[in-house]
């Protein structure tokens, strides 16, 4: 009930806030490290919010589609946990924020054993992806895509093959990380197979409403809002929320926790998936990134919402 | 009301849980880097819980007194924020977890500018301490001690002068950090003055009930439970809770967030201050530390409590 | 003339010195990171010395054959210099010792641009190998092998295909380095092609006399002792000698310069190529390695020789 | 005899070469980290060469006086070796180049034990200085100054007290290094005492002819050219030459070895001491430094000399 009233308030405020936040996009840069990403228009900004009672509100460029990139790491972690349990997953990847760049190799060399510090940096996400089983790389990728479709409630979700190809062609730093992990016994798989699966799940194309729906499942503690059935064990949702809070926004996660205070995960495409536990699933996109790699306008918009409606967990 | 029932349950379960967790102390080691600390008995374990309705429960070695050590950093941060505001404080210290040891110099050299990553690592805490003003080192230390007394509701709180002296005599790594910060312009103060203030607030002697009372103020969003008055702005309590969650337990903070899920801060003396926001302030002590520097038995006990009563923020 | 007298002295002393140095082999370990290498007998020790007047002396296990490993890096550097000149080569690789392990990635990430610090660490040697041209990987490998045969005066020099295969199958850390360099634009080649060429030249099988003959060409400033013709420009021999002196013995190069004082390059197979400029070419093998990766007995034997006959450059 | 002819050639060429090299000074910057140093005129360039037969040649600004800075480290190492022998000295400091900046703390934290990598980086030089004994800091400093006077054949050599004071007031990074070493047990002394001695020997004021005379003693293998007596054991001269070659020019030592090929040590004041073993002692000064901290014009001038007269050791 209270939720419904708040949603009405959001509806009335959001269009203007989107326009205000959009002005900040000029401060950021669209990611250029994958050639395909560089084509996104800089001043795009869209947001979609779903509440647990079935309501929703959209504002800005909600028809804009983009690839999930690092946002997918939250859900591949969940798949790996559902397949293997905590002990197996955390034997391959740690639980700690790093303070380093998402593609850094420093701690792999400096801290023995060479286990990636957490599942949301690239090294950790590659290690987690390698745990997701199947008879072939194709089958393993399919399993991931099917799960993403289920979470988004959208059977048409698919890869952006141009981005996938672009990333596969130029992803040499990820190859370097993967071979390092292979050398250290963290990754037992064929490296190119794992990278293919990894590049594919990063290249799943979504809109803000897809992200909001995926977030809503987390906001509901793992319950599918369409069927009321649990599709993710609550414990794994909890683990995902911790990682989103401590390292979901690259090495600006601490700042985001202070200024927004919500579990969230950003991607280099400018997307952000965030949740207000028990209440909302949120999808945002704004391709212009700040120096830490997060959407300038998107972070600003979430800060306004969280501040106004006191959503912070803290 | 629900709180009261839960407190009764805790009362009945806690004594046995303390004995169970105490068994784990043999896995840990009492800190030896400050000679005075090494004298603590390894199998000590005490806990004190205060609820927001005025109830409380104690178990184990609650008369054991120990120094606050790093736990004091939460409150010197709050004093600095109250004196200077967010902008000034965060120009000297960052908001991000590091993944490095609490006394590491790596990021100071590797990441420009050489601003400590957060206020809970030693470099950051020293930078924060230097912001706390006063006409003399003595006056600055007094101000801190008075605030700690107010929070603990205990006018007799004072320094353990043996620990203070021991730390002052052997704290060369902290001297090294402080001179590094001085060189980089983060610290403008006289280095030995700042270190004296820093070593003093680390050496304030408390028991579990003192910690629980200090925690209770945070659990109440900054309200003094005796007077009902706000003694810390809610926003600064929020900031403190974020840092306690993302980097309060050294580089096991991520693991603690997953397994316990409460804002907490540990000290090398074996103390842990933790809060259940809106509900409880908790003080724990168990001097035997694990490899990451946290109380083995204390963490285990908090994990049982949080698991049983579903206290996790996540 | 003086040389001839000295060579006679060496002949009389060497057999006993070899036996004395051989005793030290128990302090070392045979390299295990390439499975094939682990098969070498630990107490093997051989040495072959050629003088510029055509004389020679051998002692110990001179029929033992082993792979060149890192020793080959000296000569691929020379080939690259002969093909492209100093400016081109040193745009891809630096001139400085690192103090890090031979396979470290730290400085690649920490020091911009990500140019390997020198041509004798793995990253640098891979970058140098990529500069050696040809119509196909096979042709590029052949060119290297032919040059090695010319230097050794031995047309039968060839790959140890078991070692090559073993290294190719397990060389994931080198793959990681190569993809890192590819990402940074240091390496423009196909990574697997370069690695194939690299693994092959590391796997060229030699005996001590082959190494001594290769060293003799360097000792003669680039002159082929058989024909009297210059086969390496003197300037490139000079550059090779500098790198052998400052970083030829991994991160024990400084210690070797102090205790032996000769340009030298060691390999993980236990081989060492060393020169007394203008006078001797020396090949040594002793598979038991110290912690820094150099032959325990081989280093000891060179130290005795250099000390007794005052060969140090310094 | 040959030496005499060469010296005549140098005399005729040097004035023009000095003017040519002086043009390069605009590419460099005078060191600013010590306020006093920043006052040096940028286009100063002087050189003084002494040969082992008693001849000498000077060109450029040879009356310009400057502080020895890091050049002094070569001679404090020699004093420590003469007092304690190799084993004691190398238990406190290593023998390896680092590739890091001269004031870096990285390897102290990353490589156990925290022994400075070599005696020519700041951490290592401070450790070496602490080994030089005496009843008081004053006496220890006097001993060093007396030795410098003996080497320079100049009884008036003294401290530049302005530079000493400036360095003492602002040398917080050296304080940080020293306290780090104190914490790790490398330095057992009182930190401020050691730093006082260190800052003093860095602040000894010389001209090019002083440096040339000091260098000449090394070129003679430790023989005092005035008395013909050995004042430094040959073995310690050898050790000094190795360090000058592998790490005398900061992290451009490898490049200098390739392009010049002489043992040398530079200082942040723009001085360079270099030797042609058995033949010349050389003192150079040019305060405009390149990015690696070496005199732009001075290095260029040495490169011309070494190239023309084939002085390279390699």
TrEMBL record, chains A, B, C, D:
Keywords: Acetylation, Hydrolase. It catalyses: L-glutamine + H2O = L-glutamate + NH4(+). Pfam families: Glutaminase. Its EC number is 3.5.1.2. InterPro entries: Beta-lactam/transpept-like, Glutaminase. Substrate binds at residues 70, 122, 167, 174, 198, 250, 268. GO terms for biological process: glutamate biosynthetic process; L-glutamine catabolic process. Coiled coil: none annotated. GO terms for molecular function: glutaminase activity. SUPFAM superfamilies: beta-lactamase/transpeptidase-like (SSF56601). PANTHER family: GLUTAMINASE. NCBIfam families: Gln_ase (TIGR03814). Homotetramer. Belongs to the glutaminase family. This is Glutaminase. It comes from Paenibacillus foliorum.
